[in-house]
Amino acid sequence: MKVGIVGAGQVGAAAANALALMGAASRIVLVDRNGALAEAQAADIAHAVPFASSSVVEAGDYDALAGAGVVILAAGVAQQPGETRIALLARNAAVFADILGNVRRAAPDAILLIATNPVDIMTDIAQRQSGLPPERVIGSGTILDTARFRSLLGRHLGIAPQSMHAYVLGEHGDTEVLAWSGARAGSVPLASFAAQVGAPITEDVRRRIDDGVRRAAYRIIAGKGATWFGIGAGLARIVTAIARDEQAVLSVSIRTPEVAGVRGATLSLPRIVGAQGVAATLVPDLDAAETEALAASAAMLRDLAADVPL
Hints:
Number of strands: 14
Radius of gyration: 19 Å
Mean pLDDT: 96
């Protein structure tokens, strides 16, 4: 599959690098308004390819996206001092309108994969601007938060994170919901597994893991200014599921008819992802507190998106 990436900054480049090293795309095209940056990133990644795969990595303009099955949008403007969140979103919406017009002309059949933050709102904006059905405009959502949750749970239990089945739902941000009640290690409920291996899930453990998931980005940003490797790998994982028609269950963000009594929010739930985009949405069994928290997250995202002028 040919994959386009609009935005050759750290996130776009990390996604391209992960895709190339995984061999998940036959051709990767980086597009950026700074053509020299796109050329440099493509060349650097292309030099890593011989160690891992046969992917072709190159830079180009929008016309070079022709035939792409997926286009990742990792472009946007930074918040200015004193600028409100709505003002920033309005400026990013204007940027997206221009980008989407060019992408849709060059690659009208491509699935759009949104990485620009705040990702849930930008996914909502991209879906409305593009006119594509929601299942073909996918935000990376909580795929990284879910990976962080599984990593910390696996570390506590002494098992591989790939053996954890646990999800973060709702917003990719401060109102996200860690779905503790449905978490499993292998096929065993979390509390039972933890008791069997002598690593109980105490309130202190829950608080530590919740903080580790919820505050991870803040800590990384404090140390190096931004996050990119984790989300780059998460974007590559989503593209792989599409390219191979895996029907994989991934926590990604799309516009959702209804969840927890809230209609029309764009947020993350476990979704079945394959060649046509999102094939189905799964609503986990949640306890009352988790359901209430998910409803609050959904309502906040719905209301914020509605306030953004397009």
